[in-house]
Amino acid sequence: MTENSNIKTVLQKFVLDQCTPEETIEVIAYFRNKSLTSAFPTVEDIKELLGEMPQMEQSKADAIFSNILENTLAPQEIVLPIRKKHYKKYISVAAVLLILLSVGWTYQHVFFNQKQQPILTGNEITLQLENGDIQIISADGTSVVKDAGGNIIGNQNGSKIVYDAKTGLEKLSYNTIKIPYGKRFQLQLSDGTVVHLNSGTTLKYPVKFIANKNRQVFLDGEAYFDVTKDKTHPFIVNADKLNIRVLGTHFNVTNYPEDEQTDVVLVEGSVGLYSVNTSFDPSKNTVLKPGFKGSFDKNTNSIDTKPVITDFYTSWIQGRLTFKNMTFKNITKKLERHYDVVITNNDMKLSDEKFNASFGDQPIEKVLGYFSEIHAFNYTVKDKEIIIK
Q1: Which of 218, 223, 222, 210 minimizes the C-alpha distance to 237?
Q2: How far apart are CA 312 and CA 332, in angstroms?
Q3: Residues forming a β-bridge with 221
Q4: What's the rounded Cα separation, in Å, for the pair 111 and 367?
Q5: pLDDT digits (tens, 9 = 90+) for 167-189
Q6: 134 partner at 20 to 30 Å CA-CA among 35, 214, 326, 370?
């Protein structure tokens, strides 16, 4: 930026907060290095760009100008005393320069200290901290989890984050992790509770559980909980309209937003199920026994229970897909989450057909091939889009 026309153009952008970071740095460097040279725009030039400047008392302008000289020019560049005939001009320049530098500092301070959030494609595991910062988690990498103050509160190694129980936090502070389609993840919470998170799942949870308060987390999606026992601090999973209350146990919760019901399958221990708008009362609420599934209807707030084979509902932890008397419409939802694809079914008769099947780590073409052999339908696969004809 050596020509006067260039500085005028960028100066106008600068004042309007339209400069790029590089242009902002260039403008400030220009004023600092050339403020008293012939290349400096005249006061009239700057006023033309900015409009009328507010008047400043001469004594204040003198002090500002002296400070600018001392702090922005190298010692050999300071020529004193200043000739009286130029002094008034330099006072005006100092006043304008002060305003410009103030605008520039404010802009720079806001821009460079603003939290720059990562650009997301929707296929990343993301961790949102209490202050709104978002951290991308690479399932095959390692990283540390910090709070807003820069203190380490957890460590990530591969597909698991372990939170530190010894942090100095004394108030509830939440993190939120989101698992995209096609991926799974694990958390070890500050009390030692281990949570397996299925694809398409969001979990909000305290960084540290606080004494004399319930251990409560918030789930959208599917998760398997291995809860550390603590008789004085019940563990509560909030799944939309349903609360699941435990002291220490193993259970699976399925609560995707598009599902009409929330399913809780108990593997070990006991859990109490109750609506979020009621208080827990074991004499009135539904209490599951191991080997049972409780299904909460989101429309009627009613709960039905029945015995089940729990392995059918927890096999996803090992990467298996298991369908037990499930409609093809619901199967396609699971396939979309598991494989991160979009399935369009144009065979309406197929939607309500029910299937029993179990698959290991197999490509989706092989899974669809199984169903097409039974029902005789054709399909096409293009990138992440599958169309059933």
Answers
A1: 218
A2: 17
A3: 255
A4: 50
A5: 877 788 999 999 999 999 999 99
A6: 214
- The sign of the dihedral angle between the CA atoms of 322, 326, 328, 331 is negative
Count of CB atoms situated within 10 Å of the CB of 316 = 21
Average pLDDT of the chain is: 80
Query: Cis before residue 81, ω within 30 degrees of 0?
Result: yes
Q: What is the C-alpha to C-alpha distance for residues 120 and 134, in angstroms, rounded to an integer?
A: 10
Q: Which H or E element spans position 378? A: none
Q: Which helix (H) or strand (E) holds 264?
A: strand 261-268
pTM for the structure as a whole: 0.70
Q: Which two tokens stand for residue 167?
A: 């942090």
pLDDT over threshold 80, residue 87 = no
Question: In this predicted model, what pLDDT tens digit does every residue of 329-339 receive, in sequence order?
Answer: 999 999 999 99
Residue with tokens 């309209």: 241
Q: Rounded to whole angstroms, how far apart are CA atoms 3 and 45?
A: 14
User: Which structure tokens are listed for 102?
Assistant: 């103030």
Given a contact cutoff of 8 angstroms between Cβ atoms, the answer to whether 36 and 90 are in contact is yes
Residue 26: pLDDT band with limits 50, 70, 90:
low
Q: Quick check: 85 pLDDT over 50? A: no
Residue 151's SS3 state is coil
For residue range 51-77, what is the model confidence (pLDDT) as tens digits?
544 444 555 545 544 554 444 444 334
Closest to 30 in 3D by CA, of 104, 92, 108, 113: 104
pLDDT at residue 192 in the model: 96
With beta carbons less than 8 A apart as the criterion, state whether 239 and 217 touch: no
Which H or E element spans position 326? strand 321-327
8 Å CB contact between 40 and 7: no
Q: At what angle do helices 21-34 and 4-15 cross, to 10 degrees?
A: 120
Q: What are 79's two structure tokens? A: 């020529």
Residue with tokens 């949570």: 195
From the list 310, 308, 348, the residue with the least C-alpha distance to 332 is 348
Tokens representing residue 67 in the block: 């400070």
- CA nearest neighbour of 260 among 202, 314, 330: 330
Q: Give dist(CA 64, CA 313) in Å, integer.
A: 73
17, two tokens: 């907060």
